[in-house]
Amino acid sequence: MLLNKVLNILFPSQCPLCGNKSDSALYNPICSSCWRGIERYTGPACRICGIPVASPLATICGSCMKKKPLFSRILYYGTYEGALKESIRLLKFSGVKRLSKPLSYLLSELSVSGFDGIVPVPLHPKKLRQREFNQMAVMGRHLAGRIKVPLMLDVLKKVHDTLPQTEVTGKERLENVKKAYLASEKAAGLELLLIDDVITTGATVSECVRALMTAGAKEVTVAALARSMPKQNT
Known about the structure:
6 strands, Rossmann fold, alpha/beta, 234 residues, 34% helix
C-alpha cells in the first residue's frame, strides 16, 4: 500500500526481532515477515484451562480435575514468545497503540462469537493514569467491532492496586489479586467473554471471573493472546 510506504519513509524503524527494516505501518516496528511467523498453538492442551498436557488423550489437566475452575474455558492464540511476545510488550509498555488492531485480529480467530459482551481485564485507576490507556480496552474496541459483540467497560473494575504479577510467583499471585476486582450487577445473567493479553498462572483472570460470577454472570469464557508455557504442568 502507498500509505505504508509513505509512513515507513517518514518513520523508518528496525524490526526488534530480526533487525531488518520495518515494512508495514500496521505491524510497525515488527516487520511483516516476523509477524507472519506468529503461529497458533495447536498442541495437546486441557480443554478447560488450556494448559499443555503430555498426551492428546489427556483432555483435562490434573488441576482442573481436582477443582473445576469458575470459567468455562481459556482460549489463547499462541505461546508467549517471538513476535507475539514483542508485539504485546510494545503495545503494553511502549504505547505502540497501532498494534492493538492486528493483535485483535488474532483474538477474533478464536471461538469468540455469540457472547453477550466483551469484558477487558481492567487496570486500577492509578495504573491507568500512569500508562494512560488500558491495552485490553483498546484491543477490545477493535474486537467488538469485528465480531459484533458489545464492549462492556463498566462491568468490571479493579478496586485494589496490586503489585505487578511479574513481581510475585506461585501462590503469591493468587493472594496478590485476591478481592482486587469488583463486578457490577450489569453482569447478571450474561454470557461474557473476558479478554486479557497473557495468561501465566491464570490467577488474574480467575479472580476476575470470580467477581463476575459473584455478580450473577451466567458464564464466563476467557480469551487471551498468549500463554506463558510452564516448564512443568503445574
